[in-house]
Amino acid sequence: MLADAVYIHIPFCKKICHYCAFNKYFYDGQPVDKYLVGLDTEMALYEIPSTTVMDTIYVGGGTPSCLNREELTQLLQSIERRLAYNERTEYTFEVNPGELTPEKCRLLRDYGVNRISMGVQTFNDKLLRAIGRNHRQHHIYQCIDWLRHAGFENLSIDLIFRLPGQTMSDFDDSLTKALSLELPHYSLYSLIIENQTVFQQLMREGKLPLPSEDVDADMFQLAIDRLAEHGIHQYEVSNFAMAGYQSRHNLKYWQSTPYYGFGAGAHGFIHNTRYYNHGPVHHYLKQTGQQRKPIIDEMRLEQADLMEEYLFLALRMNRGFSLEAFAERFGMQAMKLFGDFFAKQQEKELLVIEGDTVRLTTRGLFLADTVFRDLIGWLKEGERRC
User: Fold this and answer.
1) Which pTM was predicted?
2) Which residue, among 156, 46, 170, 151, has the nearest Cα to 107 in the 3D structure?
């Protein structure tokens, strides 16, 4: 299966958030121009046919919107030169509210970008400062106005709950303000304390007052209910959309379809092989400077790995997966391979089987990571059990 999806990583940020563990570097002092040249080189090395029109392009980070006008133009021209796309392509840019300008909004639109994902996280200025964000509430409204004026309709914002010191009232207020924007898509994430972050260090020191797990669950349920009241329904563990506005690019991941990953630290999935690029910018540039793909590691997935990945990615979606579709894809019956696993999760009321469909319950979606931990390695463990 040929890939018609691309992820492009811009690893630069004006400020590093206290919770972020993505591959990222302070923008100031970085060789941004050289990086953009390296990115252009990497895309060229894949020799993607011009007849392959991309269904989705996603530019993330880091913070792509931290690029200045000249750098942003250079990036957009490179994408236009190396990738074929048209008005039907879902072309997404991640942005931060405090870094957009009306000129940048127009520039993105002029080059065919038609979807924006904005990292809002919360509308509470005190919490924004506490988590290390460089924008404030007024920037959010300002940027939404600029984007709409530039012609953007497909807009999404991210919110994070279970922030240090956050109360149900705080989160409810952020939901109210987010819904007042009347956007077609929202992403909501429970805070995870990642390794090598400011928050991990504060937690070790006992200085991170996180809401309890019960409050975390209540916040998640509140989000599901409030969004549904506005016709915005959960279609994946962390994603909610009006009908027709689901993220096509993210659906590629959850449906285990191939995609290219370009940029420092980017991952791709081609020909049943996952590949991983060098993360440090100077390592990445050394490879592209020698006209080599900047891949540091590749992993060819065995059939068992492919089947388990298919399940845990598909189960992230509310609709789950079709037993018939699984059989068509792999030539084997999921019930025969995973029947005991399904039964175990059904006993915990985390999973249901309805006719041809296997999906997680609402409780299962909230505890999805627990389900997936049980799933990974199930087939190989089964061989040992036999």
Assistant:
1) 0.95
2) 151
For residue 58, give the nearest of 189, 240, 252 by alpha carbon.
Answer: 252
CB-based contacts of 30-35 (< 8 A; 24+ apart in sequence): 30/281, 31/281, 31/285, 32/67, 32/71, 33/71, 33/74, 34/285, 35/11, 35/264, 35/281, 35/284, 35/285
Structure tokens at 153: 């309709």
- The pLDDT profile of the chain, 386 residues, written as one tens digit per residue, is 679 999 999 999 988 788 887 778 888 889 999 999 999 999 999 999 999 999 999 999 989 999 999 999 999 999 999 999 999 999 999 999 989 999 999 999 999 999 999 999 999 999 999 999 999 999 999 999 999 999 999 999 999 999 999 999 999 999 999 999 999 999 999 998 888 888 999 889 999 999 999 999 999 999 999 999 999 999 999 999 999 999 999 999 999 999 999 999 999 999 999 999 999 999 999 999 999 999 999 999 999 999 999 999 999 999 999 999 999 999 999 999 999 999 999 999 999 999 999 999 989 998 998 999 999 889 877 654 43
Question: Angle at Cα 72 formed by Cα 254 and Cα 268, nearest 5°?
Answer: 25
How many whole angstroms from its chain centre is CA 312?
A: 16
